[in-house]
Amino acid sequence: MLHELLFALLGYTGDLIIDEREHQETLRVKLSHGAPLADEPTFKLAPDLSFLQPSDREVIERVITLGFYYRELERFAAKSRNLSWIRSSNESPLSRVTDTLKGKKVKPSVYRRALANGIVEVLSLYRSAVLHIEQKLLSDSMPILATVTQGLNKFFVLLPPLYELILEIERDNVYGGRLLNLLHKRCHCGVPELQTCIQRLLWHGHQVMYNQLASWMVYGILHDQYGEFFVSRQEEEDRDSEHDSPANVLEKLANMSTNDVALTDWHLGFHISLDMLPEYIPMHIAESILFAGKAIRVLRKPSHGIQFQGAPPYQQIQKGSQKAQGFSGRLSLQKDTSVETLLTGEELLPQSEADKIEAMLQDLKESSEFHKRSFETAVDSIKAIAANRLWQLVVVRADLNGHLKALKDYFLLAKGDFFQSFLEESRQLMRLPPRQSTAEADLMVPFQLAAIKTIGEEDKYFSRVSLRMPGVTVKSSRVELPKAKAHSDGDSGVQSDTFAEMSIDGWIALPLNILLTGPYICSLRRKCSLSKLYLKIFQYLLRLKRTQMELEKSWASAMHQDHSDFAKRRTDGMNSSISQQRRQRFRPLWRVREHMAFLIRNLQFYIQVDVVESQWNVLQAHIQNSHDFTELVGFHQEYLSALISQSFLDIGSVSRILDGIMKLCLQFCWKIESQEIKESTAELEHIAEEFNKKSNSLYTILRSSRIAGVSELHFLGASFCDSTLIPSL
């Protein structure tokens, strides 16, 4: 009887101790590793045993439940350790039945395998205890049942909770980070022996996590075959479907070099899987781990776009050519073999730094318990190392300031002479409605001419600039255009009202876009959201500069007409009273034009000097004092946010008023230059009235309490208020 009991304690039933599931009338078979777990113990004494006292039967049935738990835990461990394929030739029909009924395969899990290794350790202790009991029973002349219960007493505390644990794991298909979560919760109990056991199981799970962390944070390799790590690779289909339309995704990818896998990985390749993130690891620590791994990937395998020191030389422009050579479409990043310096992972991430990271993770791995503070401290230290090395790459080797200066020159119009020339060259073109099929190509000619006139060979970043006009849509309508009238000086060239209106709705509202390609610029743009901010500011500043130019041109045109009239009056004896009447009629209009020019001029000066240059100096100071790439990204975002807010682009009411003012200014200029003053007096008076309304509204908002804390805005508002004191011309 005692030997039957000892066999049952190791999971082997017989005639005296039976398994109720194996003795079902419909299926008398042995259970395999693949059979489902029972919800409750099924080891029982045979019902026909009459020689046992009720008290002994109760004790034995309580003890043999440990044999049931042992067998189920062993089956779980064998299955999780991928040993279930080792079967005898007479495979259990029950396993085939259950596999057919379930109709699915169990997903492999390295975390379950680690848990199984911990369970095997506990079961080995249990087997040793059973062996020790057998030795004691054989040595005693009068073996008693109490020897068995006394030797296995501590396992009544361990095996039942472990069985409940694997039952929950099987039922809910728990694996990966969710398994660590479950074990961490089970650690919090009031039984010291059970707490120690669960902590040991959690330690085994953490060994897998630390191995994955080491692979990710030391070598930049995501080793996660079964999708259990909280850092996961984002598949192509997920990238296309997540929050963005296909057009937006294509635009994002278009801003990167097609051959630059590192940049694609950085922006779209990896993300935090919240489903696999253990609850005891804070989100900011997980993001630090994500950043560190991505940084190590860049440092270990620098992309082709960063295999050289500095920037490509300026692309030579053929003087006098009116064709846009080298600027059509998106320019590929050029490399100069004379300055090319191949960068290796050893140079970017010294082995000593990698060894330091690995040593920190090894210390965490060898600790018997998981200490949250030690873990977070180690992750922060690793992130600091990665951020510092990435800072060395981006700021020192890749000339971050040069790229930021290029963004400032071309997105923020710091190269005023280039854009002044471009707007002058394209002035006549922009007075016509844009053609959907050729609008971008039409602008390439003035763009090239402006570059020939103003861009020198020392500007090594201009070769990465291209002009793009995505989404050109102009509503066409059948319009009868008036015939051109001869001017008093013999010139002809009338701009119709229809053309003016279509031009306002076409070129001004068109999303003109300067694309500045290059790997380091892309590294500062998080999923292209910062690109949109740059584009927004660029469109705003370009329209403002165009409005200022048109106001100046209208004044120059008027002065030219006056000089022509004066010359004719002297040579032909023209009646001076007619000229005086004409000048008297024009005087109120020039006063309105001067008010417009004063407002636009002050606004442009404020944005370029008090906003752009001021914030640029702040950004430069931050860059000089920082040695952390993550800080640089934050400073760059603050820089753009300040540009947006201090340029009124985040205040809808101000932005709409300024938009309307610029449209009114352009309409006014085109009416003046059309030489149809007599016919358009009512329209000009209407434009002047609308301008006064909008400018007064703008002044009221600038003096409001919402932006009362910004002294520069008060200055701008006060300057505009003083514009009413401008004397008549």
UniProtKB/TrEMBL annotation:
Classification lineage: Eukaryota, Viridiplantae, Streptophyta, Embryophyta, Tracheophyta
Organism name: Sesamum angolense
Gene3D superfamilies assigned to the protein according to its UniProt record, in alphabetical order: Gamma-tubulin complex, C-terminal domain (1.20.120.1900)
Family named by the database record: Belongs to the TUBGCP family.
UniProtKB keywords: Cytoplasm, Cytoskeleton, Microtubule
Main location: cytoplasm
Record function comment: Component of the gamma-tubulin ring complex (gTuRC) which mediates microtubule nucleation.
Protein name: Gamma-tubulin complex component
Cellular localization per UniProt: Cytoplasm, Cytoskeleton, Microtubule organizing center
Gamma tubulin complex component protein N-terminal domain location: 2-395
Domain Gamma tubulin complex component C-terminal: 400-716
Domain of life: Eukaryota
Database matches in InterPro entries: GCP, GCP_C, GCP_C_sf, GCP_N
Keyword Zinc included in the entry's annotation: no
One GO BP: mitotic cell cycle
